[in-house]
Design brief:
172 residues; alpha+beta; Protein Transport Mog1p, Chain A; 41% strand
Length: 172
């Protein structure tokens, strides 16, 4: 199950980057509706709903922040038993861990309070398909209908950790 969850998350993130999956719905209202099923998220200035998808009990939404080459994702399983599986996946993402396939390395794990819950923010760095260096954070939390994950990624040239914390604080 751990491999299935990780595979689905990685598949959706990959397909989102490629924008090639016909199962995606790009209607802004639908993206906002699905987001509201996961978490209360007042849309920050400059962020635009990008797409949503539902696949094998997982809800996905994606937002694009203005002109930046960045993405914000919310992923939630409607199966509450996936909470342990998600946590097991996040637990192996420790500083120094790397993955040759995804070309990512974990930089740090920071304890934070997110969505009113004590959790860990995983900060990674990698190289995207265009050969550009990017950074990403992942935070697991309990969404409205089950275990959830928020992912924010941006090119390293645009990365601003203060902006990341402000964005995370906006999630209710």
């Amino acid at each position: 199950m751990k491999v299935k969850l990780l595979s689905i998350v990685l598949l959706v993130l990959f397909l989102t980057a490629c924008q090639s999956n016909p199962l995606f719905n790009t209607d802004a209202e639908k993206v906002l509706d699905v987001t509201a099923q996961i978490v209360d998220f007042p849309l920050p200035i400059g962020f635009k709903p990008e797409l949503t998808a539902n696949y094998k009990g997982y809800n996905f939404v994606s937002y694009k922040p203005g002109a930046k080459d960045s993405h914000l994702y919310f992923v939630q399983s409607t199966n509450s038993t996936d909470e342990e599986n998600l946590q097991n996946i996040l637990d192996v993402l420790v500083p120094g861990a790397s993955d040759k396939e995804s070309r990512q390395e974990v930089l740090e794990n920071l304890p934070i309070t997110f969505h009113g819950q004590e959790t860990t923010m995983i900060h990674t760095k990698g190289i995207n398909s265009d050969g550009k260096t990017y950074q990403q954070i992942l935070v697991g939390f309990e969404g409205k209908s089950g275990p959830a994950l928020v992912v924010y990624s941006s090119l390293s040239a645009d990365w601003d950790m203060e902006e990341v914390f402000t964005l995370l604080e906006s999630v209710q």
